[in-house]
Amino acid sequence: MLRRFVAGLFLALAVALPLAAQNPPPTSGGLSTTSFIAAASDNAGVAKATFGQVYGLSLSSISSSPAWLKLYDKAAAPTCGTDTPKARFVIPSLTTGVVSNIYLGWGETFSTGIAYCVVSGAADNSTVIPAASVFTINLFWK
Are residues 88 and 123 in contact, defined by beta-carbon separation less than 8 angstroms? Predict the structure, then answer.
């Protein structure tokens, strides 16, 4: 009797309270891409100036030193070294080439915009300029 009651309760909850889930983007209209090769600067930029989600990254390097991609919840280019990043990703170092592909599942939400910096220091206040033309960044967003 109790078993039927519990089973019925779970079924009622499953019907009454469906889980909110985001579906991945369809093939038509899919994800947008921001792709660039880091310059000898802080590479401050904006992928999207309104609400969005980052679904993945592909980061590659032919440098002997790592760099960091820092993502900001901003609609304008961040002030690297002053603004606080929402997320930080290391771009690994290997002079023969290395690629780091990162999948973010249902996406990391950015309520204001998706902005970024690429610097050679891990600290949030780093403004260390990376070497030119050795880091490739691809952001996949919607």
Answer: no
Mean pLDDT of 50-77: 96
pTM exceeds 0.90 for this model: no
Short-list 90, 80, 23, 95, CA closest to 55? 23
With contact defined as beta carbons under 8 Å apart, do 115 and 84 qualify?
no
State the CB neighbour count (10 A cutoff) for residue 137: 23
* Token couple for 131: 């070497």
Higher pLDDT, 11 or 77: 77
**Cβ distance 23 to 53 under 8 Å?**
no
b/e string for 96-109 if b means 16 or more Cβ within 10 A?
A: eeeeeeeeeeebbe
Alpha carbon distances (Å) from 1 to 4, 10, 11: 5, 14, 15
Answer yes or no: is pLDDT of 43 > 70.
yes
Of 116, 46, 44, which Cα lies nearest the Cα of 76?
A: 46
